[in-house]
Design a protein that fits this description.
Number of strands: 13
Strand content: 25-35%
Structural class: alpha+beta
CATH class of the largest domain: Mainly Beta
Helix content: 25-40%
Number of domains: 2
Shape: elongated
Radius of gyration: 32 Å
Order of helices and strands: HHHEEEEEEEEEEEEHEH
CATH topology of the largest domain: Immunoglobulin-like
Distance between the termini: 61 Å
Number of helices: 5
C-alpha cells in the first residue's frame, strides 16, 4: 500500500473541498467583508489578515498605507465576484443535470367505474390534471385483460394536443398506447382531455384497466422532466346481457366512424401514425418501473442546488431595484 500517495490524495481532496466551501462562503459574505474590511483594519488591525509587503512591520506599527488597505479591499471584492460567478455557473450545470427536479404533480384522470352490456362499446376519456408546469408531451400506455375487453378505437377528438406520433393497439397482449403533444409554450390549464379510448366488452365480469409505468407526461421546462405523479386505474363491470345487432351497428357508426384530418380530428391536428386497423398487431410492451431508491449522490446534488439557489436569490434581492 502506497501510504505517501494515499496521504497526498487525501490532502488534494481536502484542498478541493475546502476551496469549494470557501467559494460558497465568499459568494455570500465576500462583498460585505470587502465593504467592512477598512473599518475592521482601523478597529482591530492585529486580527485582520492583510496581503502585501512588510506585513509583520505593518502589524507592529498598527498602521498600513491607505493604498494597501484599498488593495486588500479590492482583492476581496474581486475574489467574491468570481465566487458568485462560479456559483452561477454551478447552478446552470446542476439545472442541466436535472436539479432541482421539476415537481411531479400531474395525474391521469379517467372514469373510475361503470357497467356496460356484453358487446357494448364504451368510451374512457383520458384527461390530465394537476398541471403546475406547462406540459408539451404525453404518452398514455394502458394495460387490460384481453379476455374480457378489447380496444375498438382510440380517438384524438377534442384533445388539447395537436401533434400525434404514435397510436398502438394490441388486443392480443392487452395493450394500447397514444403518444402526442404540442409545441412551445405547451399546455397549461387546470385539466385537459388528451384522448378517448373506446373499449368493447367480450366476456361478463369485472375487469380492470391500468395505466402502465411507461406512461409519461413531460414538462416544457427545457429538460423534458416527467411530471407524472401517479398512475390511474379503472374498474368496469361487463354485464351478461348482450346488445342487439341494431345497437352494435349504431355504435360502430357513431364511435368508430373514420376521423378525417380537418373534420372530426380538428383542423390543427397533425398525425404521424398510420390510420389503419392494427388490432392484434405485435408490439413491445414496456414494463420498466421507476423505483425511487436512496441515492446519496442525488441528495448531495439537491442540497448543493438549494445552496446555490439561496445565494443567487439573495443577490437577486439585493441588486433588484426598489
Amino acid at each position: 500500500m502506497n501510504l505517501p500517495g494515499l496521504i497526498l490524495a487525501i490532502k488534494i481532496a481536502f484542498f478541493f473541498l475546502a476551496s469549494w466551501v470557501l467559494v460558497h462562503v465568499l459568494a455570500v459574505l465576500g462583498v460585505f467583508t470587502a465593504v467592512a474590511y477598512p473599518f475592521w483594519w482601523f478597529l482591530v488591525p492585529e486580527k485582520v489578515p492583510i496581503i502585501g509587503p512588510f506585513t509583520e512591520k505593518i502589524r507592529e506599527k498598527r498602521s498600513a498605507p491607505f493604498k494597501l488597505i484599498l488593495l486588500n479591499t479590492f482583492l476581496i471584492f474581486v475574489v467574491s465576484a468570481v465566487s458568485i460567478g462560479l456559483v452561477f455557473l454551478e447552478g446552470k450545470f446542476l439545472f442541466k443535470l436535472g436539479f432541482p427536479p421539476t415537481q411531479k404533480t400531474v395525474s391521469f384522470v379517467v372514469p373510475s367505474k361503470g357497467q356496460y352490456r356484453l358487446g357494448e362499446i364504451f368510451p374512457m376519456k383520458v384527461e390530465i390534471a394537476g398541471i403546475k408546469t406547462p406540459v408539451n408531451a404525453v404518452q398514455a400506455d394502458l394495460g387490460f385483460d384481453p379476455a374480457k375487453i378489447e380496444v375498438a378505437e382510440i380517438s384524438t377528438e377534442d384533445s388539447f394536443a395537436n401533434i400525434f406520433i404514435q397510436k398502438e393497439i394490441n388486443n392480443e397482449a392487452g395493450y394500447a398506447r397514444l403518444t402526442g403533444g404540442l409545441p412551445n409554450p405547451g399546455f397549461f390549464a387546470d385539466r385537459g382531455v388528451f384522448g378517448t379510448v373506446f373499449f368493447k366488452g367480450k366476456t361478463p365480469g369485472v375487469t380492470k384497466i391500468d395505466f402502465l409505468p411507461s406512461s409519461m407526461v413531460l414538462a416544457n421546462d427545457g429538460r423534458g422532466s416527467n411530471v407524472l405523479r401517479e398512475l390511474a386505474s379503472a374498474s368496469y363491470l361487463i354485464l351478461p346481457e348482450e346488445i342487439s345487432e341494431e345497437e352494435a351497428e349504431l355504435q360502430s357508426s357513431v364511435f368508430l366512424r373514420p376521423q378525417v384530418l380537418g373534420e372530426k380530428a380538428g383542423e390543427t391536428q397533425m398525425k404521424f401514425f398510420e390510420e389503419k386497423d392494427i388490432l392484434g398487431a405485435e408490439t413491445e410492451i414496456e414494463k420498466e418501473i421507476e423505483i425511487d431508491k436512496f441515492n446519496p449522490g442525488k441528495i448531495f446534488l439537491n442540497i448543493l442546488e438549494g445552496v446555490d439557489r439561496f445565494i443567487l436569490n439573495l443577490w437577486g434581492k439585493v441588486l433588484k431595484p426598489s
